[in-house]
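[User] Once you have settled down, look closely at the record that follows, and write a paragraph about the fold.
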Amino acid sequence: SAATGRVNGLTMTDTIIRDSGGHGLLTEVTGGGQIANLTYSGLTVEDNDEYGIYHYSSGAGSLIGTSNISDSVISNSANSSFYAYGTGGGDFTTINLSDMESHNAGASGFIVYVDNAGSLITTVSITDTLIDESANDGININATNGQFTTVWLSNITSNNNRDNGLSLRTSGATGLIGTA
């Protein structure tokens, strides 16, 4: 059998990421790779040409376990400030975003999206967060044939976004948001 890549823990604190030609910060697992725990705190992510922070999990057995991002400011991303995407059987256990700010995103402030049957995000929690001046939705939670078990939103301020302040969507025969 083929070995799979695994990272048990990654912590990044008090870091500035700016003016990248791609994503400010990319976390990607594919082909059965796994990252058990991510902790990002005190980040300043600004003026990047793609997503500010992009989490991507694709393929059966691929997993980003617990992702905790807190006390961070993301501004002027050409695309979304934060995007977590599970596809083709790629999963996330828990995504916790707290004490966050998103300013002037070129798409939605925060997107959490699963598509394809077999992709699952067990828990999404977004708390104590300010999102303003997004070109699309402030927050977009979307299950297109994928599934969320629990979505928890608390103490959110969504100002002056050009589409919806908050968009919660499901579609397809297996699209499901269990508890919101």
Observations:
- The chain is about 0% helix and 60% strand.
